[in-house]
Specification:
Strand order of the largest sheet: 2-5-1-6-7
Helix content: 40-55%
CATH superfamily of the largest domain: P-loop containing nucleotide triphosphate hydrolases
Largest sheet: 5 strands, parallel
Distance between the termini: 27 Å
Radius of gyration: 19 Å
Strand content: 15-25%
Length: about 220
């Protein structure tokens, strides 16, 4: 089976969703199957929706370790309760990630069973140790601070102080993220979305990704 995988990461408001949509359209024109796995959706599925026994076990472990509100007998997690406990407590955040991330990784591996190219999207993909899962292939999106804030004001129902706090949090991770990726990664591409890249920029990006992750389909995959 001819399949390749890469990760897409970047702080809030850097344009990850828009970038994935633009790339999906280009891959489709090239007749290359393209699949996107959003880690946040996968995590929410495990915590709130899935009836699989392994995911019930994950929820039970979390509920017991963090003293969470959960709905028996399936142990569905109250996400507001979870957020209030882990985002303000670094030790509990570590427990949360160590408990849930192995289940998320197994689910991503299960979903990544189709031919073509798969993108795994997650803001904390590098920091949470998902780099080996995407074979060391990572696309890092960046954006100027003021543009990030402008995008978030249009899409998020938060005060300016709250938005700035979130942007600053992700900004504080940028240098570390890039260092980890460069030290551990195979294909590392930094893509700046500040000026809202157009179709030509995304076509060049897709061409570079295809070449660097080694996807082959036996024909000319890119023609200007």
């Amino acid at each position: 089976m001819n399949k390749c995988i890469f990760g897409v990461t970047g702080g809030i408001g850097t344009g990850k969703s828009h970038c994935l949509k633009a790339m999906e359209e280009i891959f489709r024109r090239l007749d290359i199957p393209f699949h996107c796995i959003e880690v946040d959706k996968t995590r929410r599925h495990i915590l709130r929706v899935s009836n699989e026994e392994t995911h019930k076990k994950a929820r039970q472990l979390l509920a017991e370790a963090l003293d969470l509100n959960s709905e028996s007998p399936d142990f569905f997690i109250d996400l507001l309760d979870l957020g209030s406990k882990v985002f303000a407590d670094e030790e509990k955040m570590i427990i949360f990630k160590e408990t849930i991330n192995p289940f998320i990784k197994k689910e991503i591996i299960r979903q990544n069973d189709s031919e073509g190219v798969t993108a795994v999207e997650w803001a904390m993909l590098v920091e949470d140790g998902f780099l080996p899962l995407v074979k060391g292939n990572i696309l890092i999106l960046t954006c100027a601070n003021d543009v990030q804030l402008g995008r978030l004001k249009r899409s998020q129902d938060m005060s300016d102080d709250q938005l700035l706090q979130r942007v600053d949090f992700y900004r504080s991770l940028d240098k570390k993220r890039l260092e980890i990726a460069q030290n551990q990664g195979k294909m590392v591409k930094v893509f700046d979305t500040t000026k809202d890249p157009g179709r030509d920029s995304y076509e060049c990006l897709v061409q570079e990704i295809i070449e660097k992750i080694g996807y082959k389909n036996g024909k000319n995959i890119y023609k200007k």
